[in-house]
Design brief:
Elements: H1 5-12, H2 16-24, E1 32-33, E2 39-40, H3 43-57, H4 62-70, H5 76-109, H6 116-123, H7 130-140, H8 144-155, H9 158-180, H10 188-204, H11 210-222, H12 224-228, H13 240-254
Antiparallel strand pairs: 1-2
Amino acid sequence: MGYSVGQVAGFAGVTVRTLHHYDKAGLLSPGDRSPAGYRLYGDADLARLQQILFYRELGFPLDEIATILADPQANALDHLRARHRLLTEQIAKLQRLVEVAEQAMEVQQTGVRLTPEERFEVFGEIAFDLSYATEAQLKWRHSEGHQRSMARAATHSKEDWAQIMAEAAAWRQRLTAAFDTGEPADGERAMDLAEEHRRHISRWFTPCPTAMHGRIADDFAADPRAFALLVPPSEQRPGLAAYLRTAVHANAVRQADGTDES
């Protein structure tokens, strides 16, 4: 008994167009004929279609399926192992993307609770980079300090943020002045500025020991997106991020007497 293309499409869950495509590609051609001369799919064709659909479900391209089916001696297991490795890698990548998306949603739902207009009014050139914020959330999500900082930021009012940004702007002016006048990064003036920044974080966000401050400064020097959250591009100078990092680490040495937890 043979089956028409419409019948096969119906019980195989594919379209007639797909079966015609398989036929045109030489992958599956009906082997039987009706008394009226119409081409029909026989039992062997249906078995072959099952194999094709199995490999398609696993993501094999048609040319590779044709290679496997064309050679009865072909080692299908090797092809399946290769496909298994690829699918495993894709699953890992997709899982990572899911995690990034979840963290991005968390970043959007916490942190600065201001309208877009209020953000522009308060932050000015300081841009909130979602990609960096999400990466930071992924990197530090198990850090108690990061969690506390995010939670504390969510409680700040517009007035709080205005004061935070005013303090930060005044501090940036002193930092760039020290840099521009050639003050050494490990000198007293630069270290005092580093200590002021550390205490600013502790006062407004989370207790910031010198070890944590060092990691933050390392991020500033390594990632322009991080430094742009502290110093807008229009106020930056080449080497300023590295200068601040040196000052922060020098201050950590100075504070090594145990007075760095405030």
